[in-house]
């Protein structure tokens, strides 16, 4: 009789026990936000006569290595076109969770989307060095106050062929849109 | 210098010249009258001894004339002691009968005092895991074995003894691991490479708790673990083992990431025996794990060889070579709790290739009945690279050497003294080109004040230099006492200090990985610790119990913290105190049944922040039961670790759902058949499919089943 009770107890124990961690019941928690970042871009200096496009662009790596692949794979992210000839403007970029090492304000100064781009501002909270400040977007968080200063008279270093990169990026966006 | 060493050895030789006789004998089973193979025959209070061969015979030469106690011990037999008298220039011959017993023989431990002693003679909390248990659990790595040792818990690959380490991303372990007596930490990160140790060639693992720097120097701040591999055998022996395992489906459908089942499999082939006069052990092992998590597979090869040559009965050289080649994917953290078995998007495809080997040469010479020395030298090369952009890579070569003398001038004193040192060269994209070296002198005396009362005291002075930094010295004393109230019951107390020199990785890392940028801090100071313990041990054939109360104080603990620029830097930030109590119980109520229990209570307090220490549980409980009947056996292990109350604030920022953690309740079960040359095992790990994390954002292994077969010729 005792053996039978024992045999009965074991499966009951196995079936009734707690299984520890479990996935949340809803896709997102109440505090979940679409991940990304945003803030204000401040402009100073003399605006160029010719402005075709102006955007905030974020890259995963700095210095950018194999950046073309990063762009082609859609891992670089950018904002909507920013307003021109203003002192400052709000912006936002929807970007995935994780680290973003290079956030830049890019200006298209000519009609050629593949070549006429340059960086006019970089997110850098430590201007004493030349390394841009990276950000980390936690899961379900939107980072605010990622503010960027742009000086048309004193643009930051142009560490790579940014013109070509942003050209490819926008071209890819247009292709995706057409599909 | 060479001349000095030669003269020193010569003087030791001359000390050894005395009038001697020889002892020969045969050991047989009292019931069957058959010879017993592998009996350890030791002349007590001397360094002289031997082991029986396949005919049950032994020979001990050059024994100084006099009266002695001969001690014989073997697995499955009662330990026997007989009085003998050795006459000068004569050979004494004995026929000795040993009585079989169903009870376990008390294990021999070498790590606690750098000499062989039975567990009941050890004045420090020590546990021993023996090879049979490792084999029947089908543990694939040493860290899996240590998960069931009282007072020990593993956080991912980082080991804690009584809460010593917490979690510091693999760098700078606060537990020293020895591989056949030599330090087995990498030269760059100072980490333990568990997978490089061939688990199926382990004879036993000794776990010594509390600060042990008075004998072992840096890193022995929380304890010492010595992995001792099997001896080469006189009888030729081939072993083959293969295993095949499968992970169960994740308990929650949301966590299923693979359309097919995930497997792990592998095996080994080994030879152990004499080739001519050379004792030879060769072991080749293959392991593949597809991973229960996405981006977590590995493919590895292990080769382990050991050679032993006896120049004479009292002069032996051992050579060991151990090699690991591995390719493994890297799972840093989960994407989130809803995707607990998937990595973050940016980590998919992350992979590390590594190649590691270590060698050890050890020469032991018994110069007389009361004097022997051991000289050893080892080299550990660690090379790895990942596939990040830009690529991280590191090569480290760490050389160790040691010269140890054991001298027993009379029955009251046993002296051990020695010198050891290291030389380390690192070339790494993370740390640059770095080097470090150290030298140390140590001495220990064991003083037997009365038959019941033994003191052990010692001192070690370490001098080390880390790359461009200045020389730093550390003096570490120890004092232990053991009082035997009866044959079965003893009281002990121990006091010791410890230190840990910063690892090269802590002082010089400059990298970005898994979303975190780390910068160097060459001004790091060594960590320091004091540990104190009072304990009691009771051993009889049916029950053995060990109880201990301990107090450890730590200064200058190195922790990664955010600096003002938002980057991580290793700093000496923490002063801590860990107090607690521990009880271990082994029960052998009847010959086919045994149980063991271990409970540890910890009060791990961070005095710098007046809060509980990060990654330390308050309660650790283990239970283990085994039953065997004829050739059939079953066993079950249970472990409970209370929830870590506090984790890194930093990780909360980086890891989604970092606060998702629970107490740990894990049950592993096994059954098998044990024939003479064939053994079959069936194991279920995490039987109850309990989901938990050891480190945030990393779901621990889900339920898996495996079958293994071992065949021996």
Automatic annotation (TrEMBL), chain A:
Q: Which PROSITE patterns match?
A: PROKAR_LIPOPROTEIN (PS51257)
Q: What is the source species?
A: Candidatus Chryseopegocella kryptomonas
Q: What is this protein called?
A: Uncharacterized protein
User: Mind giving the lineage of the organism this protein is from?
Assistant: Bacteria, Pseudomonadati, Candidatus Kryptoniota, Candidatus Chryseopegocella
From TrEMBL, chain B:
**One of the protein's GO biological processes:** siderophore transmembrane transport
Please name the SUPFAM superfamilies in this protein's record: Carboxypeptidase regulatory domain-like, Porins
Its localization reads: Cell outer membrane
The record places domain TonB-dependent receptor-like beta-barrel at: 265-687
- What's an example GO cellular component term for this entry? cell outer membrane
Task: Write one Pfam family the protein is assigned to.
Answer: TonB_dep_Rec_b-barrel
Does this UniProt record's set of keywords contain Membrane?
yes
Q: Which GO terms describe its molecular function?
A: siderophore uptake transmembrane transporter activity
Q: Does the keyword Secreted apply?
A: no
Q: Give the highest taxon in the source lineage.
A: Bacteria
Bilayer topology reads:
Multi-pass membrane protein
Give the signal peptide range.
Answer: 1-16
Swiss-Prot/TrEMBL keywords: Cell outer membrane, Membrane, Receptor, Signal, TonB box, Transmembrane, Transmembrane beta strand, Transport
Report domain TonB-dependent receptor plug positions.
119-224
Which InterPro entries does the record match to this protein?
Answer: Beta-barrel_TonB (IPR000531), Beta-barrel_TonB_sf (IPR036942), CarboxyPept-like_regulatory (IPR008969), Plug_dom (IPR012910), Plug_dom_sf (IPR037066), TonB-dep_rcpt-like (IPR039426)
| Family that this chain belongs to | Belongs to the TonB-dependent receptor family.
Which protein are we looking at?
Iron complex outermembrane recepter protein
What species does this protein belong to? Candidatus Chryseopegocella kryptomonas
């Amino acid at each position: 009789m005792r053996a039978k009770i024992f045999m009965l107890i074991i499966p009951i124990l196995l079936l009734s026990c707690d299984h520890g961690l479990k996935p949340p019941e809803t896709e997102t928690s109440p505090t979940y936000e679409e991940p990304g970042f945003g803030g204000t871009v401040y402009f100073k200096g003399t605006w160029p006569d010719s402005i075709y496009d102006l955007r905030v662009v974020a890259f995963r790596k700095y210095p950018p290595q194999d950046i073309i692949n990063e762009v082609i794979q859609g891992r670089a992210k950018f904002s909507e076109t920013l307003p021109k000839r203003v002192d400052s403007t709000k912006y936002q970029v929807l970007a995935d969770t994780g680290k973003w090492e290079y956030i830049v304000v890019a200006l298209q100064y000519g009609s050629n989307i593949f070549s006429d781009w340059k960086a006019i501002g970089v997110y850098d909270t430590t201007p004493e060095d030349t390394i841009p400040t990276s950000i980390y977007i936690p899961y379900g968080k939107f980072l605010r106050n990622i503010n960027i200063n742009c000086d048309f008279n004193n643009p930051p270093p142009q560490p790579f062929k940014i013109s070509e990169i942003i050209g490819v990026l926008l071209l890819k966006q247009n292709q995706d849109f057409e599909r | 210098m060479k001349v000095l060493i030669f003269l020193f050895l010569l003087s030791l030789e001359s000390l050894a010249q005395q009038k001697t006789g020889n002892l020969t004998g045969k050991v047989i089973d009292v019931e069957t009258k058959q010879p017993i193979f592998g009996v350890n025959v030791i002349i007590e209070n001397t360094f002289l001894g031997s082991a029986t061969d396949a005919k049950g015979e032994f020979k001990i030469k050059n024994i100084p004339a006099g009266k002695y106690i001969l001690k014989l011990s073997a697995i499955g037999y009662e330990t026997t002691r007989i009085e003998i008298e050795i006459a000068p220039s004569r050979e004494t011959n004995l026929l000795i009968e040993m009585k079989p017993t169903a009870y376990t023989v008390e294990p021999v431990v070498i790590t606690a005092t750098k000499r062989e002693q039975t567990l009941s003679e050890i004045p420090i909390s020590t546990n021993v895991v023996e090879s049979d248990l490792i084999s029947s659990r089908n543990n694939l790595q040493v860290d899996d074995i240590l998960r069931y040792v009282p007072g020990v818990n593993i956080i991912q690959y980082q080991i804690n003894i009584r809460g010593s380490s917490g979690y510091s991303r693999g760098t700078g372990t606060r537990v020293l691991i020895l591989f056949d007596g030599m330090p087995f930490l990498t030269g760059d990160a100072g980490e333990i490479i568990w997978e490089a140790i061939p688990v199926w060639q382990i004879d036993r693992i000794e776990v010594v708790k509390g600060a042990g720097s008075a004998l072992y120097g840096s890193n022995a701040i929380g304890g010492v673990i010595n992995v001792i591999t099997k001896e080469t055998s006189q009888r030729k022996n081939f072993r083959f083992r293969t295993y095949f395992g499968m992970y169960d489906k994740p308990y929650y459908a949301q966590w299923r990431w693979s359309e097919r089942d995930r497997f792990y499999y592998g095996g080994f082939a080994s030879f152990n025996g004499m080739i001519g006069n050379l004792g030879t052990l060769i072991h080749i092992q293959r392991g593949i794990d597809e991973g229960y998590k996405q981006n977590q597979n590995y493919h590895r090869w292990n080769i382990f060889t050991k050679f032993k040559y006896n120049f004479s009965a009292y002069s032996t050289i051992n050579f060991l070579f151990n090699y690991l080649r591995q390719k493994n994917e890297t799972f840093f953290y989960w994407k989130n709790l809803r995707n607990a078995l998937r990595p973050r998007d940016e980590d998919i495809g992350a992979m590390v290739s590594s190649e590691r080997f270590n060698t050890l040469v050890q020469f032991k010479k018994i110069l007389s009945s009361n004097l022997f020395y051991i000289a050893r030298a080892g080299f550990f090369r660690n090379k790895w690279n990942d596939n990040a952009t830009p690529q991280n890579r590191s090569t480290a070569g760490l050389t160790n050497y040691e010269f140890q003398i054991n001298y027993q001038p009379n029955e009251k004193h046993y002296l051990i003294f020695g010198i050891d040192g290291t030389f380390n060269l690192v070339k790494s994209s993370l740390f640059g080109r770095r080097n470090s070296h150290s030298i140390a002198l140590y001495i220990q005396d064991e003083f037997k004040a009365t038959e019941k009362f033994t003191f052990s005291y010692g001192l070690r002075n370490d001098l080390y230099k880390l790359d461009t930094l200045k020389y730093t010295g550390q003096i570490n004393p120890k004092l232990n006492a053991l009082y035997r109230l009866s044959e079965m019951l003893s009281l002990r107390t121990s006091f010791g200090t410890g230190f840990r020199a910063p690892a090269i990785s802590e002082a010089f890392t400059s990298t970005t990985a898994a979303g975190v940028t780390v910068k160097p801090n060459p001004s790091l100071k060594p960590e320091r610790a004091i540990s104190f313990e009072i304990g009691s041990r009771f051993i009889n054939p049916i029950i053995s119990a060990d109880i201990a109360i301990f107090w450890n104080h730590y200064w200058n603990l190195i922790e990664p913290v955010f600096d003002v620029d938002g980057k991580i830097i290793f700093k000496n930030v923490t002063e801590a105190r860990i107090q607690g109590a521990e009880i271990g119980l082994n029960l052998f109520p009847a010959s086919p049944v045994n149980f063991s229990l271990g409970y540890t209570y910890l009060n791990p307090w961070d005095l710098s922040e007046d809060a509980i220490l990060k990654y330390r549980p308050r309660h650790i409980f283990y239970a283990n039961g085994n039953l065997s009947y004829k050739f059939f056996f079953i066993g079950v292990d249970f472990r409970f670790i209370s929830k870590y109350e506090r984790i890194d604030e930093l990780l909360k920022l980086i890891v989604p759902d970092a606060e998702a953690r629970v107490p740990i309740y894990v049950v592993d079960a096994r059954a098998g058949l044990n024939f003479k040359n064939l053994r079959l095992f069936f194991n279920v790990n995490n039987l109850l499919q309990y989901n938990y994390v050891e480190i945030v954002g990393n779901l621990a292994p889900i339920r898996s089943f495996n079958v293994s077969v071992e065949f021996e010729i």
